[in-house]
Specification:
The protein is an alpha+beta fold. It is 28% helix and 26% strand. The strands form three sheets. Strands 2, 3, 5 and 6 form a four-stranded antiparallel sheet that branches. Strands 1-4 form a two-stranded antiparallel sheet.
Length: 157
């Protein structure tokens, strides 16, 4: 059986980045017109919060990411999508509501070789700092445009 490696990131050019951002916008528009009325009818505040979020960008400090990876044997940095299960209770912290989308950066080790049958793989999440397993960031921004391949336009939400 032939083995393959998981794709770990592929460089894309400016037109491909524009296309990906445009496709996300188009899908959001379709979702708003088709799915949102159904979600709203369910009267579940966290479900509505999740599906009405326009956040698509999560900003992490490069220093925090480097510090997280120091001292680990991480071969991979996994980006995991999630949603908050409670409202923010810290008035000085980031504001978020139950259902707000979030991402977690998880340093991992293991073998990411997969076989032709695509048998599930297991990576080991590694701890760092004071037994943390991920850097987490609530949604705060929307990337609305990629300009010249070097500048992102952010709108704080």
């Amino acid at each position: 059986m032939e083995l393959a490696r998981l794709a770990h990131g592929t460089p894309i050019n400016e037109s491909e980045a524009h296309a990906a951002l445009g496709e996300r916008r188009a899908l959001r528009d379709k979702m708003d017109s088709i799915i949102l009325p159904i979600v709203t009818a369910l009267k579940d505040p966290s479900l509505v919060q999740f599906f009405t979020s326009e956040a698509n960008a999560f900003i992490f400090s490069a220093k925090d990411v480097i510090d997280m990876l120091k001292g680990t044997n991480a071969g991979f940095l996994t980006i995991v999508l999630g949603a908050h299960d409670t409202d923010s209770s810290d008035p000085n912290g980031p504001g978020f509501k139950m259902g707000d989308q979030t991402v977690m950066l998880v340093p991992c080790s293991g073998d990411a070789t997969i076989d032709a049958a695509r048998t599930p793989i297991t990576l080991q999440a590694l701890t760092f700092g004071n037994s943390a397993v991920a850097l987490e960031h609530p949604p705060t921004t929307v990337v609305s445009e990629i300009v010249g391949g070097v500048k992102l336009i952010f709108h704080i939400v």
